[in-house]
Amino acid sequence: MTLGPLIVQSDHTVLLEVAHPDAEDARHELAVFAELERAPEHIHTYRITRLGLWNARAAGHTAEEILDTLNRHAKFPVPSGVAGEITDTMRRYGRLTIERDADGALVLRCDDPAILREVSSAKKIAPLLGNRIDDRTFPVEPWARGELKQQLVARGWPAEDLAGYTPGEPYDIELAESDGDADGEGAWHLRDYQAKAVEAFQRGGSGVVVLPCGAGKTIVGAASMAAVGAKALILVTNAVSARQWRDELIRRTTLTEEEIGEYSGQVKEIKPVTIATYQILTSRRKGEYQHLSLLDAQDWGVIVYDEVHLLPAPVFKLTAELQARRRLGLTATLVREDGREGDVFSLIGPKRYDAAWKDIEAQGFIAPAACFEVRVTLPESERMDYAVAEDQDRYRIASSTPEKQRIARRIIDKHPDEQVLVIGQYIDQLEAMAEALDCPLITGQTPVDERERLFQAFRSGEERILVVSKVANFSVDLPDASVAIQISGSFGSRQEEAQRLGRLLRPKSDGITASFYTLIARDTVDQDFAQNRQRFLAEQGYSYTILDADEV
């Protein structure tokens, strides 16, 4: 018998032996229910969490499947306590249901009176329920539907919401048979995984679809809107994303420009399909949210949350009051740096579908990528500045070293015929880099029209190199970018790593492998934060080569 690549431990961690021939298969199956915690060279550590198991259960996986994965790939027998805990945890999902009674009123039901008694007596849950109807049923006020789901998750009893949704005002949206472009692509159809994602959303009525950048999340959103057939509100990260959504909807559906409204800092239109930014929705004046009326401006049949892992905290509160409307979250990763994955689960909905990055890459729908960490040594003078700096200043000193300019130029010279993005966090560092490379710079201060002009110049090949701040992390379609050089970031953010890698994953016309470089100051907090970012790449099955600056 071949010993597998996994060691399952009684503290619910799972160790993966990276060099094992079955490691890739085991990693893909683990990703369904476990979260990667650490990813050094040889042994990766995953943790099995309640939320991960509930998401797997909501996506249609069973405890038997998960235990089969662990047993098939385990080097030693799975501890009986872990196996029992997995079964018990997954059994908890759906024991409580939120439904409609015969009169259409909202109720909380459970087939076990003891469980219902336990949750209904909890201090934060009792005020959300009315007077008990019988041993298995409590009435729920419509306003409490979202908050009740949050509190039940916190209590360890996630409810399955079967209460249905407001149909919304009907509006005919159909997928176009042709993309209308003169680029020769012509007729198109949903890819198999996109169709499965739409079907999973329809079945659940609300929830999150996890797909890599470049895999066509916008098309999944458009197809879901067509399946619902009602007016739609789309929430996006910024005005550039809003315009890209509009362009893609016009290209892929029967919607016209006149039917799609933009609601942002620049424009405030409300149309049958309206695209709004998170920023405008959360802007306040004298302590009041000014634009909340947008959420009820139309009888929306579906609300689409783009990049749901970036959903601002105030939007959770607003979403808690929108539980009667269908909700679709789109993201490349469920990881949130603020730890509010439970609120995404409760309020947007559980994970309905995900597809492994490497599987979609193998089908040719996203480009293969090679990832490199290049370690730079701080010069003596900067090393002294770093040594005496306050803790909060050390990351900036380390990640902004001018040494990175020299290495970035060397990397660009290695890829003379490729489109290159240089991505960073600090504006002064980016300005110096753009000047040194004699190329355009795009930051949050760049007007939207100028950003779009520069992005278009990059797409057309007129500009080969762009230096960009984090405004390019999100929903910017740059299909020909094949090299990214990351010179600084948001303190080891895994979600940012997903977005930045995603800039490179659009399939290339010449089929080349994309190259993703991260420049790191050796023996500093810059290197410490890089370990966290590596976790995301390892999670998705990408190898991560560590180079010394002199090896570039």
From TrEMBL:
<dbReference type="InterPro" id="IPR032830">
    <property type="entry name" value="XPB/Ssl2_N"/>
</dbReference>
<dbReference type="InterPro" id="IPR032438">
    <property type="entry name" value="ERCC3_RAD25_C"/>
</dbReference>
<dbReference type="GO" id="GO:0005524">
    <property type="term" value="F:ATP binding"/>
</dbReference>
<dbReference type="GO" id="GO:0016787">
    <property type="term" value="F:hydrolase activity"/>
</dbReference>
<keyword id="KW-0378">Hydrolase</keyword>
<dbReference type="Pfam" id="PF16203">
    <property type="entry name" value="ERCC3_RAD25_C"/>
</dbReference>
<protein>
    <recommendedName>
        <fullName>DNA 3'-5' helicase</fullName>
        <ecNumber>5.6.2.4</ecNumber>
    </recommendedName>
</protein>
<dbReference type="InterPro" id="IPR014001">
    <property type="entry name" value="Helicase_ATP-bd"/>
</dbReference>
<feature type="domain" description="Helicase C-terminal">
    <location>
        <begin position="406"/>
        <end position="552"/>
    </location>
</feature>
<keyword id="KW-0547">Nucleotide-binding</keyword>
<dbReference type="InterPro" id="IPR001650">
    <property type="entry name" value="Helicase_C-like"/>
</dbReference>
<dbReference type="InterPro" id="IPR050615">
    <property type="entry name" value="ATP-dep_DNA_Helicase"/>
</dbReference>
<dbReference type="InterPro" id="IPR006935">
    <property type="entry name" value="Helicase/UvrB_N"/>
</dbReference>
<dbReference type="GO" id="GO:0003677">
    <property type="term" value="F:DNA binding"/>
</dbReference>
<keyword id="KW-0347">Helicase</keyword>
<dbReference type="InterPro" id="IPR027417">
    <property type="entry name" value="P-loop_NTPase"/>
</dbReference>
<keyword id="KW-0413">Isomerase</keyword>
<keyword id="KW-0067">ATP-binding</keyword>
<dbReference type="Pfam" id="PF13625">
    <property type="entry name" value="Helicase_C_3"/>
</dbReference>
<dbReference type="GO" id="GO:0043138">
    <property type="term" value="F:3'-5' DNA helicase activity"/>
</dbReference>
<dbReference type="Pfam" id="PF04851">
    <property type="entry name" value="ResIII"/>
</dbReference>
<feature type="domain" description="Helicase ATP-binding">
    <location>
        <begin position="198"/>
        <end position="352"/>
    </location>
</feature>
<comment type="similarity">
    <text>Belongs to the helicase family. RAD25/XPB subfamily.</text>
</comment>
